[in-house]
Amino acid sequence: MDKVVSSPKDAVADIPDGVTLAVGGFGLCGIPSVLIDSLRASGVTDLECVSNNCGVDDWGLGVLLAGGQIRRMVSSYVGENKEFARQYLSGELEVELTPQGTLAEKLRAGGSGIAGFWTRTGVATQIADGGLPWRYDAEGNVAVSSPPKETRTFTVKERTPEGTTATVDHEYVLEPAITADFSLVRAWKGDRHGNLVFRTTSRNFNPLCAMAGLVTIAEVEELVEPGEIEPDEVHLPGIYVQRVVPLTPEQAADKRIEKRTVTESQES
Question: How confident is the model at residue 259 (pLDDT cuts 50, 70, 90)?
Answer without folding.
Answer: confident
